[in-house]
Amino acid sequence: xxxxxxxxxxxxxxxxxxxxxxxxxxxxxxxxxxxxxxxxxxxxxxxxxxxxxxxxxxxxxxxxxxxxxxxxxxxxxxxxxxxxxxxxxxxxxxxxxxxxxxxxxxxxxxxxxxxxxxxxxxxxxxxxxxxxxxxxxxxxxxxxxxxxxxxxxxxxxxxxxxxxxxxxxxxxxxxxxxxxxxxxxxxxxxxxxxxxxxxxxxxxxxxxxxxxxxxxxxxxxxxxxxxxxxxxxxxxxxxxxxxxxxxxxxx
Length: 251
Description:
Layout: H1 4-9, H2 14-21, H3 24-51, H4 54-70, H5 74-88, H6 92-116, E1 127-132, H7 136-144, E2 150-155, H8 158-167, E3 170-176, H9 184-193, E4 202-206, H10 211-217, E5 224-227, H11 232-250
Parallel strand pairs: 1-2, 1-3, 3-4, 4-5
């Protein structure tokens, strides 16, 4: 099982994190997802660095900073913050000079969490809902507030969301708009090409509630928009709307 003292001895602020998560089960779920995502995230950062795509570099570094902070990795969050700001400022020199040390930080976190966790997760055969967001914090908050009758497929970017669509029989999609690589609008373009909107309800989740973005979202046949920050009751409302979508289509 989990070895909490191992985290504390490595300067992870578990107590502060539990004030946010409330219990060890939710905290551990997020730690596990964070661990599993680190290799892909650092690879994507390296890709954006080489492509000089500093906008997406900064977006991804921001996501990693937020996740690290909420999980108690405060020193590491400061490192990610420096790279977030460097991405926003297109500070190529800082990124190039400090990227190897960033990789070392990521590897240290990954190795620590590999030691912390043991065992495998089980798979079930329930209705599948894709939740696509580049923040594992947001993914887990949504997952923890959706009824256990559903299986959640988590996607950190648009590419993973499309792969999940192609490889699963999906009941619904909760889709963030602002993700690195393929964003939510590009995923919806793919869905329109494949006529997926007619079969699967889509709910947009976004932290950008400007009139322009919301109008653009509703040019697609989406079910609803869930504006961040949201609460448990907002997710329950969305789930009711999803069930109504199927009730209408089956009548």
